[in-house]
Amino acid sequence: MTKDEVVRGNLDLLSEFMRYAFDHPDILDEISPEAELVLLPEDDPGLCAENMRMLEKSEGAERPHVVFRMKKPQVVVPRLESA
What we know:
This protein is of the alpha+beta class. The protein has one domain (about 5-70): Trna Endonuclease, Chain: A, domain 1 (3-Layer(aba) Sandwich), CATH 3.40.1350. The chain has 2 helices and 2 strands. The chain has helices at about 5-25, 45-60, and strands at about 35-40, 65-70. It has a two-stranded parallel ribbon with strand order 1-2. It is flat, with a radius of gyration of 15 Å. The mean pLDDT is about 90.
């Protein structure tokens, strides 16, 4: 995976996580203000492996980690039926 693919994939995951958090703000109670959020996509093995590598590299750091597993958001492509 290229760095650009990892960044784009993580931005998509974060966007979906934030959308969920706006609808279910109680999930934010699970995250310490000092914690680093790690999102592991269940349906993207490549991105999941990259995020796990980053998590393993940062283990032992002073900041705690909060890990959530989630599915990647599905891209909705509207189709013009008539103009």
